[in-house]
UniProtKB/TrEMBL annotation, chains A, B, C, D:
This is Methylthioribulose-1-phosphate dehydratase. Substrate binds at residue 102. Residues 1-15 have a biased composition (Polar residues). It is found in: Cytoplasm. The active site is at residue 148. Belongs to the aldolase class II family. MtnB subfamily. GO terms for biological process: L-methionine salvage from methylthioadenosine. It comes from Phaeomoniella chlamydospora. One of its GO terms (molecular function) is methylthioribulose 1-phosphate dehydratase activity. Pfam families: Aldolase_II. Keywords: Amino-acid biosynthesis, Cytoplasm, Lyase, Metal-binding, Methionine biosynthesis, Zinc. The gene is MDE1. Binds 1 zinc ion per subunit. Gene3D superfamilies: Class II aldolase/adducin N-terminal domain (3.40.225.10). PANTHER family: METHYLTHIORIBULOSE-1-PHOSPHATE DEHYDRATASE.
């Protein structure tokens, strides 16, 4: 029914048409509108993707995120090869829009078990990557403990949430000139820290994911809260751990 | 009519259905939407509860506060035992939702005479608890005077509002790994400072309450304004008292 | 037609009922909703008043400014005695609401020729009053020059707008325990600086006014922009003049 | 059909009436509403203009930008003389509104190939011009590199976007007492830096433009993001390049 036939590429409109507000093609524009207000997807930056069964829904590249519509959403068959882009099995490719450069990174998160992956350019995330490098060097992770909001982040899949006295650790990878080239480093960080639900990208932002769409969003909010608090704590001379 | 019969637990829908915008089941979602915009209930953090006659309405645990609906609200008979949770007399328990961990803390506020209790994770509140500890030690309260907005906070029940030259004092308790365990310390702080309308929780946020829903909200706003101002004053080298 | 007859006090509803969005009774709630979003009227703080012909419309005391309705508006005959409050000629007094403590201050602005007066508790205004005192002492005014936004403030009535190289000067008065007692000092500042369209109140906020409602609002915005910029400039070690 | 006949000046209403949301007369009010929320056009500051074929649409001077309507838009024939103002060929001049002082600056951007030009008073832009002067002197440009968001800015017309390791350079011109007098300096900066899509104005704000309306907006957002980040980086002692 959803043949990967290039003649049909732009006709599978039924894949993004639904009255259900919880359908991925409706959720992605709704989430992006909210993320725009938080400054997470300024100037077409950032993106969001949701996997449902064997379909992956992705916001397109280079559009104003707060104006995105369901009809702008790309749909991939899942699983699908990450490289080369031409090998990816698109079920729907909106005419005149470009697929997101974040596509292989989102696919990596889904391979890791996620249902939704959010990529933001949040300034708090960027500032935290700069502060960690300045204070502890390039190999250090972001670490914070003894803050209630840490309890909004899981210890790992099916391991429950972090406790107040636990230390939240988020790995930081270096940025690459081409976003797709981050995939390798993101996957390495996931392999090294299999329990993490997010990876910071130095001078760039964050990739955060979750077992459900709601968890991806609320965990990403909790992380951003902690990054902002950490920057303000640093300004006031208060240490993070 | 509202029997505490477990077979009826999820059927007392009439308790949260009302056309009246001032009904607690309508006010709580409305307030939470606003608090989300202020960053007070980021990532499912925080919560709100209203008592009306012998009913207590509580926002559920772990939901996106800006998307909450009347039908998500828990209703308890009041008074009800605080512990153990199983002894609490629920008149309405929405299927698939968890009661808030703040429940015994809200009940403590109602025992203290409140009509509405608001719990936020406001970063300004958290930063103030950190600054007070850094400047004056763990036993110190937050103190500020000679700021007009102080007049938005009462001196105590039926004692009128604080004056411009009065000193506002908010007790600070230490956080505990489990939110429910805060209840004991909240009650002790209430007993020690019977006139206070709020208690700060170090590295966590604030519990604030009021004699009416409007007063709980506006007092909580005034406190948050003062916490933000205090942090900025500190950055500029200006003392709080 | 609008007799000041106490039996009619709450029945002159026609004075606040209009389909015209530019009617003062419609503008005041609209403005207050906006000011709430800017943090200018947090927790029932601040207020707004508009004079039209021989009527003065005033937001009530102690209400949530973002929820205010036309029917909450007080109407005074203008001119009217400032003191004692009982001598003021109310044409409309909403039942169960208290007249604003800012009433004599608004009247002072109207006596000075204003059409609309806005009172905010903006934190930027408060911080600027604290910084001026710290840097230049209690007798100093707030002064800033060579910022484009200064051109949004008039030189004085019918004197055109300030130029880029002009110095904007806003007098600062000390706060008093009772808001009404500020009136004397506000009037003295107006007498001493007849060209000013605003007076800062130390540790409290600002009173700003304008020849039209739009001018009062946009001038108040420009001032708040300058206060915020001034605080940030100070943090970066850049002087204001 | 659109004669520049003074008797018709205010009757060419069809030029600003369209059901198409992407019509310039609909886009400008929509954009200004958004810019108001970002603090870019506080107190009637700033402005926006769009060129379509041989028509130039401009927001008027001195209006509340968030309340602007299509019917408030001025329309010029393009090309048109920049000076004197009386030589400009207005196709539509709304009664009782003043043409924007930014008019010749917008025309300069269109002469340079732009389709949309945005002028903001963003505080981040102003602070960056002050910091550059303080750190590097009056002749220095704003420079930043190794930040992902830089990729939102083009290298120059038909040259693709900047890369992560490229340095973004934005020229800064000195402010002039009269906005129109900036035109000469803006044009000189454009001639000297033909690839730039923006020019900062010291102590004033920014002019930014784009090949399409969407690009002008998203590039302006990316620049503002970078200015804010740069100010915060400076506060944390982290260099921009």
């Amino acid at each position: 029914m959803d043949d990967v036939d290039s003649s049909q590429l732009i006709t599978n409109d039924h894949l993004v048409q639904s009255e259900d507000p919880d359908h991925p093609a409706n959720l992605i524009p709704e989430l992006c509108k909210r993320f725009y207000q938080w400054g997470w997807v300024t100037g077409t930056g950032g993106g969001t993707s949701i996997r449902r069964d064997n379909h992956v829904f992705i916001a397109p590249s280079g559009v104003q995120k707060e104006l995105m519509k369901s009809e702008n959403i790309f749909v991939l068959e899942y699983p699908t090869p990450k490289y080369p882009p031409s090998a990816r099995k698109y079920l729907r490719k909106p005419l005149a829009l470009k697929p997101s450069d974040c596509t292989p990174l989102f696919l990596a998160a889904f391979d890791h078990g996620a249902t939704c992956c959010i990529h933001t350019h949040s300034q708090w995330a960027v500032l935290v990557t700069l502060l960690v490098e300045k204070l502890h060097g390039k190999d250090a992770m972001f670490e914070i403990s003894n803050i209630e909001q840490i309890k909004g982040i899981p210890k790992g899949r099916e391991k429950g949430m972090l406790g107040f006295h636990d230390t939240l650790r988020i790995p930081i990878i270096e940025n690459t000139p081409f976003e797709e080239d981050l995939t390798e480093y993101l996957e390495k960080a996931m392999a090294k820290y299999p329990d993490t639900y997010a990876v910071l990208v130095r001078r760039h932002g964050i990739y955060a994911w979750g077992d459900t769409v709601a968890k991806a969003k609320t965990q990403c909010e909790s992380l951003d809260y902690l990054f902002q608090l950490a920057v303000e704590m640093h300004k006031l001379g208060i240490s993070w751990t």
